[in-house]
C-alpha cells in the first residue's frame, strides 16, 4: 500500500505540494508537527501548539520554549534538508515525496527525512552519494 501512495504522490507532486516546506495535504505543520530540535537530541517528539513559530510558510511546533528558542536562533541548522521532503526521492527521482519523521537520519549535523522504512534502507546504502545528488537537484528548484 505504501508503494502505491508513494507512486501517487510522485505522479501528482507538482499539484499537491508547496515547493519550500512539506506540510501534507490538510496541514500547515512542518515535519508533521514534530519538534525538529528534538531529532538532534536523538529522540524525536511531537511539538506543542504552545511553542510555535512560522517559518518558510509553515507552522513549526516545539516541545519546549528552549527548543523553540534554539530554532529561532538558527532555523537552517534545525530545519530538515530539502524542505522535509523525502531525501531519497529528491536525490534519485528529482521529485517531491512526503518526508516521514519516523524515518530520519542526521548526517553532518543535518536532518534528512525519508518516506518509509524500505526507502530509508535504500537511502542508507549510499547516503553520501544521495546527499550529493539531492543537493544538486534541490538547488535547481
Automatic annotation (TrEMBL):
Keywords: Signal. Residues 1-18 form the signal peptide. This is YHS domain protein. The keyword Signal applies. InterPro entries: YHS_dom. NCBIfam families: YHS_seleno_dom. It comes from the Bacteria. It holds the Pfam family YHS. Residues 38-82 form the YHS domain.
Amino acid at each position: 500500500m505504501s508503494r502505491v501512495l508513494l507512486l501517487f504522490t510522485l505522479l501528482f507532486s507538482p499539484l499537491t505540494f508547496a515547493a519550500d516546506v512539506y506540510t501534507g495535504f490538510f496541514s500547515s505543520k512542518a515535519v508533521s508537527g514534530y519538534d525538529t530540535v528534538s531529532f538532534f537530541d536523538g529522540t524525536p517528539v511531537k511539538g506543542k501548539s504552545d511553542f510555535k513559530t512560522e517559518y518558510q510558510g509553515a507552522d513549526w511546533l516545539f516541545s519546549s520554549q528552549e527548543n523553540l528558542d534554539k530554532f529561532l536562533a538558527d532555523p537552517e541548522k534545525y530545519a530538515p534538508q530539502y524542505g522535509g521532503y523525502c531525501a531519497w526521492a529528491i536525490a534519485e527521482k528529482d521529485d517531491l515525496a512526503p518526508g516521514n519523521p519516523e524515518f530520519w537520519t542526521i548526517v553532518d549535523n543535518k536532518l534528512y527525512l525519508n518516506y518509509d522504512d524500505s526507502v530509508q534502507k535504500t537511502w542508507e546504502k549510499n547516503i553520501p552519494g544521495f546527499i550529493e545528488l539531492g543537493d544538486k537537484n534541490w538547488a535547481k528548484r
